[in-house]
Amino acid sequence: MTTWLSADPRLRLACLTLPIAIGSLLMLQGCHPSVGTHVENPKFETLDHDRTGLNFSNTLHPTRAFNVFDYMYFYNGGGVGAGDFNNDGKIDLFFAANQESNKLYLNAGDLHFTDVTLAAKIPQDSGWSTGVSVVDINNDGLLDLYICRVGDLLGLPHTHNQLLVCQGIGKDGIPTYEDQAKQYGLDFAVQHTGRFLRL
Ligand SMILES: [Ca+2]
Ligand SMILES: [Ca+2]
Are 156 and 66 in contact (CB under 8 A)? Predict the structure, then answer.
């Protein structure tokens, strides 16, 4: 019996490249209209950081010692969590970064945000964060943050997932946090938040 594996190598190459070519064409079709194309009555408007105060950037710094060949998810990105972290009725934003600092921005209204990362005591340990979940883990009415980290990989700082439990909201309206992942038994050194979400 003739199998696909025993077919002519040129036929095998054609079988491999044809689906890729068709897939690429479909992706190009799906991306229409392309960047730079004029759109009548756009539904969204791009606002730069001078307008919004949001200057977070998940900038990557690949080196010969550590790059996508060492970590296949190198370019998978970080994450963003949205919630009213200071209970003022406006949705705030938390950004999880790979090789930059995680940042917390409070919504000041009128689409302007203020970076309160340091005042909120967001830990900065150079760990590689891959995502964030927002939850009130202790049901005290204050939103908490669970941040997924790459915890045990050669070339990256050894770290673990963080559970940032809100310690209260100051008179200045800024919430402060403490990493209590170990106390809650959630200090996993894994690469996703799935285990937490299944609790
Ligand atoms: Ca808020
Ligand atoms: Ca809470």
Answer: yes
